[in-house]
Design goal:
Layout: E1 10-16, H1 22-38, E2 42-48, H2 54-63, E3 69-74, H3 80-90, E4 95-98, H4 110-114, E5 121-125, H5 133-148, E6 160-163, H6 164-172, H7 180-187, E7 191-195, H8 210-223, H9 227-256, H10 264-296, E8 304-308
Helix pairs in contact: 6-7, 9-10
Bound molecules: uridine-5'-diphosphate and magnesium ion.
């Protein structure tokens, strides 16, 4: 990077994991958008999330030679949120744009987001999705939880424009299992979505297995919200309330002289229900403890190995 010593207006953060061909195209299209349409200073930060493919490594080495492109290599695969967080911490722009590496979002949509710069965070809504059924279901569940747990009124896409002070606020939150929408939500409510001018392309095979998606989802539930705690607390009250009602019923029957039957099956149901709820609640509490342990032992969300094409520090 022939380094502009001044901070750029825009930083584009791209998490990269085992990508090949489309990366060059992505960088070219980003450069074109900023030079021809936006006409403002920019930097592109490609965060290599521990890619193991040799092609990706050489491609990133080559791209780091380009003007305005920086490559940050992580020591291992930390997962997308860690890679994005690393990109945010390396970024210097007044605004940060996040976008995936597989052209599933169009760089040409960036000016649309920029047109709404009066907000803290702007995301794009895509007209159509062309994912597999499993991906569609998981993304539907994710959208549901973004709404129910995080309280987002809009559907989020990986293409986001985030204001600097929001980025700084996100970086100040200590977490080793970041969940980007939750971090944004901790800092601001001023989030809008603009309809994308482009259809979501079918490009790019997902690098997320069901297990990894599930892990991310549980990070949202346990690491970034108190949703499960609330569910179990409420469930606890409901079960306790029901047992009180049952007890009141039994006492009333006794007082009224109505003969009561010894009900072994209902007793078993009650024991199993309470036992199951207890076990689940203990397990979930354990999950929270593990995460607190992770944070107190300062487990990192990402570790940088090297920076290529980085501008000199000011
Ligand atoms: N990614 C990453 N680390 C990973 C997996 C994915 O940085 O361990 C990045 C990937 O390079 C891409 C983005 O996360 O920029 C989305 O990944 P992918 O396209 O595989 O997921 P999907 O489109 O199915 O959400
Ligand atoms: Mg993708």
């Amino acid at each position: 990077m022939t380094a502009p010593t001044q901070k750029p207006r825009y930083s584009v953060v791209v998490p990269v994991y085992n990508t090949e061909d489309c990366l060059t195209d992505l960088v070219m299209r980003l450069q074109r958008v900023f030079t021809d349409t936006v006409k403002a200073s920019f930097e592109i930060i490609l965060v290599d999330d521990g890619s193991v493919k040799a092609e990706t490594k050489t491609l990133l080495d080559d791209l780091s030679q380009k003007d305005g492109v920086m490559v940050v290599r992580l020591t291992r695969n930390f997962g997308k949120p860690g890679a994005v967080l690393c990109g945010l911490s390396a970024s210097r722009g007044d605004w940060v744009i996040t976008i995936d590496d597989d052209l599933q979002q169009s760089p040409e949509d960036i000016p649309l987001l920029i047109a709404h710069e009066q907000h803290d965070m702007v995301t794009a809504t895509h007209a159509r999705k062309q994912h597999t059924l499993l991906q569609r279901i998981t993304s539907w569940i994710k959208a549901l939880f973004d709404r129910a747990v995080l309280g987002y009124q809009v559907k989020l896409s990986p293409l986001k424009l985030i204001r600097r002070h929001v980025v700084d606020g996100m970086l100040a939150i200590k977490t080793n299992r970041p969940f980007i929408p939750a971090l944004i939500r901790q800092v601001t409510n001023d989030v809008v979505s603009v309809p994308s001018a482009h259809q979501k392309s079918a490009q790019g095979r997902s690098r997320y297995s069901f297990k990894r998606r599930w892990n991310q989802f549980s990070d949202l539930l346990v690491g970034n919200s108190n949703f499960l705690m609330q569910v179990f607390t409420r469930l606890g009250f409901v079960v306790a309330g029901l047992s009180f009602a049952l007890a009141a019923g039994v006492i009333a029957r006794k007082l009224l002289g109505i003969p009561t039957q010894a009900g072994w099956s209902s007793l078993m149901v009650a024991i199993l229900l309470i036992g199951g709820l207890n076990l689940a609640a203990v397990g979930i509490t354990g999950q929270y403890f593990i995460r607190i342990l992770d944070i107190t032992s300062k487990k990192p969300a990402f570790v940088e190995r090297e920076r290529l094409g980085a501008p000199p520090t000011e």
